[in-house]
Design brief:
Elements: E1 2-8, H1 36-42, E2 54-58, H2 62-71, E3 78-82, H3 88-102, E4 107-112, E5 116-117, H4 120-135, E6 139-144, E7 155-161, E8 169-175, H5 180-189, E9 192-202, H6 203-213, H7 215-226, E10 229-231, E11 234-236, H8 239-243, H9 250-255, E12 261-266, E13 270-271, H10 276-282, E14 291-293, E15 296-299, E16 305-308, E17 313-316, E18 321-325, E19 330-334, H11 341-350, E20 361-364, E21 367-375, E22 378-385, E23 393-395, E24 400-407, E25 410-414, E26 417-421, E27 426-429, E28 435-438, E29 445-452, E30 462-465
Parallel strand pairs: 1-2, 1-4, 2-3, 3-11, 6-12, 14-16, 15-17, 16-18
Antiparallel strand pairs: 4-9, 5-13, 6-9, 7-8, 7-9, 8-12, 10-11, 18-19, 20-21, 21-22, 22-29, 23-30, 24-27, 24-29, 25-26, 25-28
């Protein structure tokens, strides 16, 4: 049996302003109609012996993961919550320990939630080839046949063929991201592959190799799993124990040390979607080399990536640019310098700018809210509440609220009294009064919320009772 393990960490800051800390790239439809997380799982359809996936994510993204899986009708094995980031080796160790509690030593197919693959049949074929070696106790990684000299990826040098497994080779060398000259030399030899960061290994083999080379990681993660607690649909690792683990990648902790490392070369039109330039490279282009998503009108524009989620973008006489617009921010940068976007985000974060972390639309376990307008002593938001969902029972010290139902039906609890509020009706929530919003219907509930008072920040929320454990 193959157990998919989807690693859904990371902030994706190089894809700002679309990707932000509260809504990173794996939750966005950047390379396909579905989010990258969903595409990662959906592309496994049709493979034999594939079990339900396990997703490893951080605490802040847990409801995003659960809601996206639910909305796509994807049944999952578990969602494991990392209390702090500790890189990929501890994350996969936790998934392996958890898998062995439920199954008889499954093969773990370790995938990043934010990669894109066009050639699914080649991907499936490579998994079948890797499974034979993994079942034989090997730690298998997938090496991408390089399409060009690339300085943004690590490289793997393949060695001798692995007996008994088709298209499987011993790993001769791992190489860090090279400069342009060295990358060109690697590609010219035909011996080097891009390091995809995807793996196939039995759960027990991975833990055995981790114990051999980094027993301190295994000890810390074992305790974190043993002292984990179930929280709604999630398995929450013990924070103190997990923090004790060193932060190391699978490559550093295991692959660069083990004598069981193998690589399966595959040409499957893969991208790690690590920058706007890589996204431009991945997508099909028009006759002038442009990739356009959203509304745009342009004249004499060549080799540009243009993406707007809301506004019309106009461009004249520009080349080799990334032009990306969201509801609250615009990025203009040479494609060749798109790796530097993360530095821009760091500058915004240092200034305390909210645009570095959140969009105007913020997702919550009960739905979402979107900022419409803000001014001195007031704020206006658009709220969406999922069918059957409800907010926490809460109160505010510095603001009152006025809710107007646009569509759907609301059940509002205000100071212990329940009231049904229908379309085109409104209700007033006084300052300091405990209240809750519930959607009892079968369609989404949409409201306009007007907050008024001396302070309308999100931290002016006192939760009296919360279904979501916040």
């Amino acid at each position: 049996m193959i157990q998919p393990v989807i690693l859904s960490g990371g902030a994706g800051s190089r894809l700002w302003p679309m990707s932000r800390e509260a809504l990173p790239k794996q939750f966005l439809p950047l390379a396909a109609p579905n989010s990258m997380l969903l595409e990662t799982i959906l592309r496994l359809a049709g493979l034999a012996n594939m079990s339900k996936p396990t997703v490893v994510c951080n605490n802040e993204h847990r409801f995003l993961v659960a809601e996206q899986l639910r909305s796509a009708g994807i049944d999952y094995e578990s969602i494991i919550l990392e209390p702090v980031g500790r890189n990929t080796a501890p994350a996969v160790a936790a998934a392996a320990i958890w898998a062995l509690k439920k199954h008889d030593n499954p093969l773990l197919l370790v995938l990043a939630a934010d990669h894109a693959i066009n050639d699914i049949s080649s991907f499936h074929k490579a998994i079948g080839q890797a499974a034979l070696a993994a079942a034989d106790g090997k730690v298998v990684t997938f090496g991408i046949q390089p399409a060009r000299p690339e300085t943004g990826y690590g490289y793997i040098r393949k060695g001798a063929a692995n007996p008994g497994s088709e298209n499987t080779y011993q790993v001769s060398e791992f190489v860090e991201k090279p400069n342009a000259e060295r990358a060109a030399a690697y590609v010219a030899t035909g011996e080097y592959l891009w390091n995809s960061g995807m793996f196939l290994v039995s759960a027990q083999t991975f833990l055995d190799e981790l114990k051999k080379y980094h027993p301190e990681i295994l000890a810390a993660v074992c305790e974190a799993v043993e002292q984990s607690v179930a929280d709604l649909d999630f398995q929450r690792l013990d924070e103190e124990k997990f923090k004790a683990s060193p932060s190391l990648s699978i490559d550093v902790a295991v692959m660069e040390k083990t004598d069981k490392a193998c690589v399966v070369p595959v040409d499957m039109e893969w991208s790690d979607v690590g920058s706007w330039e890589s996204l431009w490279t991945y997508h099909a282009k028009d006759q002038n080399g442009n990739v356009v998503q959203g509304e745009a009108e342009f004249i004499d524009v060549k080799n540009c990536y243009i993406n707007s989620e809301k506004y019309l973008i106009g461009a004249i006489g520009v080349e080799n640019l990334a032009i990306v617009a969201t509801a609250d921010a615009i990025l203009v940068a040479p494609l060749s310098r798109s790796q530097e976007v993360k530095n821009l985000v760091e500058n915004l974060r240092a200034q305390g700018r909210s645009e570095s972390e959140v969009h105007t639309k913020v997702f919550r376990p009960w739905g979402a809210y979107e900022g419409v307008d803000v001014g001195d002593r007031f704020q206006v938001k658009r709220l969406t509440v999922h069918p059957g969902a409800k907010t926490s029972l809460q109160m505010h010290y510095h603001r009152s609220e006025h809710w107007v139902v646009v569509s759907g039906t609301a059940q509002v609890t205000c100071d212990g009294v329940d009231k049904i509020v229908a379309e085109n009706e409104s209700i007033y929530i006084p300052l300091g009064v405990p209240h809750r919003l519930h959607n009892p219907g079968r369609i989404p509930l949409h409201l306009i919320e007007v907050q008024s008072g001396p302070y309308c920040g999100e931290d002016d929320i006192v939760r009296v009772e919360d279904l979501y454990g916040r």
